[in-house]
Write a structure and sequence with these properties.
Elements (H helix, E strand, L loop, with lengths): L5 H9 L4 E5 L3 H17 L3 E5 L3 H11 L5 E5 L7 H4 L8 E5 L2 E2 L3 H4 L6 E3 L12 H4 L15 H29 L3 E2 L3 H11 L5 H16 L5 H21 L15 E4 L6 H4 L5 E4 L1
Parallel strand pairs: 1-2, 1-3, 3-4, 4-6
Antiparallel strand pairs: 5-7, 8-9
Length: 284
């Protein structure tokens, strides 16, 4: 299920609990962790921070620390695969909040029936998740063999089975089309900024971390220029709001957000070395 109210559906459920944070190791994850852990310290929420380098490492970290808390925050890991199955079906009191920019979201996580998985996200225009009835349906049960089945009931049973088989074929195609391509949603740091804003805890540091994350997403080509400009405008609104609200001396830290030169780096050398060269850089 999606978390659409950050105070009620996220923060109120974490207050008073120790939170296990399992995070990936990229720039956006570091920025997101910085924003949220600062919020947790302010709100008096205890946490344990763990980093993982893949699904196997994530499972190992969960196994090692699962006994220490029932609340887990997964940052940039856990959205694209069946999280509960991967973690070997944890007890129902375990709750997982997933903040992940990787897409597509696994449909089992999205339509989680136990209420254990909460996706911190908003539907993107290009993100079309299949409807529940398109991918979930009860398997028709055959009549009891001991009961006498007349010709009419037998025909009805065959029709139900035929309808189900037709639905199963459509389901397979829908899921194939949905999972055919992987892509990226908005950076997780943008959601973290919205959380601290809702809690009235946002500041220049959280905005700076969001800018770093947003710029990294552009440089690493996880965001097209149009999306980057859209999100940059949102961040700029936060900058203006905080700048106007603060009464600080003029020589204090000011954050300004603007466009910079964007160069293509041309590297020479063997192809194996070129793979590790950054494709772009920025200059001021």
């Amino acid at each position: 299920m999606l978390v659409d109210h950050y105070r009620r559906d996220l923060m109120d459920k974490l207050v008073g609990h120790r939170v296990i944070i399992i995070t990936a190791q990229d720039v956006d994850s570091v920025c997101t962790v910085r924003i949220l852990t600062s919020l947790f310290k302010t709100e008096g929420i205890q946490y344990i921070l763990l980093s993982c380098s893949g699904i196997t490492d994530m499972k190992a970290k969960y196994a090692d620390y699962s006994s220490q808390s029932d609340k887990f925050l997964m940052i940039n890991c856990g959205a694209t695969f069946d999280l509960l199955e991967t973690l070997e079906n944890p007890p129902k009191e375990k709750t997982f909040f997933v903040l992940d920019y990787h897409r597509p979201i696994h449909v089992i996580n999205y339509y989680n029936s136990t209420g254990q998985v909460h996706i911190i996200s908003v539907p993107e225009p290009e993100e079309v998740i299949p409807e529940f009835d398109q991918i979930f349906r009860e398997v028709p049960e055959d009549d009891d063999e001991e009961e006498e089945v007349d010709e009419e009931n037998s025909e009805e049973r065959r029709q139900r089975r035929a309808d189900y088989n037709e639905w199963a074929e459509r389901r397979q195609k829908i899921l194939f089309d949905y999972r055919e391509y992987s892509y990226y949603a908005r950076p997780s740091a943008l959601y973290a900024l919205e959380v601290v804003w809702v809690m009235s805890r946002d500041d220049m540091e959280s905005i700076w971390c969001t800018i770093v994350s947003l710029t990294d997403s552009l440089i690493m080509r996880r965001l097209p220029r149009a999306k980057y400009t859209e999100f940059a405008s949102t961040v700029n609104d936060h900058i203006l709001r905080i700048s106007n609200a603060q009464t600080l001396p003029r020589d204090c830290l000011k954050v300004r957000f603007g466009r910079e030169l964007f160069f293509i780096c041309i590297a020479t050398g063997p192809s194996t070395k070129a793979r590790w060269e950054p494709p772009t850089s920025s200059a001021r």
